[in-house]
Write a structure and sequence with these properties.
This is RNA polymerase sigma24 factor. This protein is mainly alpha-helical. Helices cover about 75% and strands about 0% of the residues. It has 2 domains: about 100 residues, RNA polymerase sigma factor, region 2, helix turn helix motif (Rna Polymerase Sigma Factor, Chain: A); about 70 residues, Arc Repressor Mutant, subunit A, CATH 1.10.10. The longest helix is centred in the middle third of the chain and has 25 residues.
């Protein structure tokens, strides 16, 4: 992932995170200014509920403020933007789990048609036609990897962190997904 809306001569996000780790509020505000719009768009791709997106944004930046030193101490090769996305993605998963835990089950007597997941709707809106149909027919674990790497532009390492999978598994799933996509589109 590259730097987000950085003017020439301004510090990059990694430098801003190092400053945040030292308690620099202005650096935190600049990091937020640069990354929050991008972060909100990516979260909305995965969740249509604006309240959850707002909560995840708040939790993410609170975590960044509190734990910036953890990035500084372990950022060998990683990007600050990738680190931010990893935090946000984990917070989103936590929000989905909380929501599922507190949701009441529907009455058994009246089965409800299942609405497509937010990711499915975003995928349908982003990729249409034969390619979109082929993507939707992929196994969910293969589709997740392709979505992260192709649609979101994440590296293998970032996808691995996001999905909580070993890098080798991500590579294997990406290869399998591409093979299945080629077959479906042949």
């Amino acid at each position: 992932m590259r730097s987000v809306r950085k003017a020439p001569g301004e510090p990059d996000e990694e430098h801003l995170v190092r400053l945040v780790a030292r308690g620099d509020r202005a650096a935190f505000e600049e990091l937020y200014r640069r990354t929050a719009p991008w972060m909100a768009v990516r979260l909305r791709r995965r969740c249509a509920d604006e309240q959850i997106v707002a909560e995840v944004m708040q939790e993410t930046y609170l975590a960044v403020w509190r734990a910036a030193g953890a990035f500084v101490g372990t950022a060998a090769g990683g990007t600050a933007v990738g680190w931010l996305w990893t935090i946000a993605a984990r917070r989103l998963v936590d929000a989905f789990r909380r929501r599922a835990h507190h949701a009441e089950p529907p009455p058994a007597a009246a089965p409800q048609p299942m609405a497509p997941a937010a990711e499915e709707e975003a995928l349908a809106a982003t990729v249409g036609g034969e390619v979109g149909d082929a993507l939707r027919r992929l196994a969910p674990e293969l589709r997740q990897v392709l979505q992260a790497m192709v649609l979101d532009g994440l590296s293998v390492r970032e996808t691995s962190v996001l999905l909580g999978l070993p890098e080798g598994t991500v590579k294997t799933r990406a290869r399998r997904a591409r093979i299945e996509m080629r077959r479906a589109l042949a």
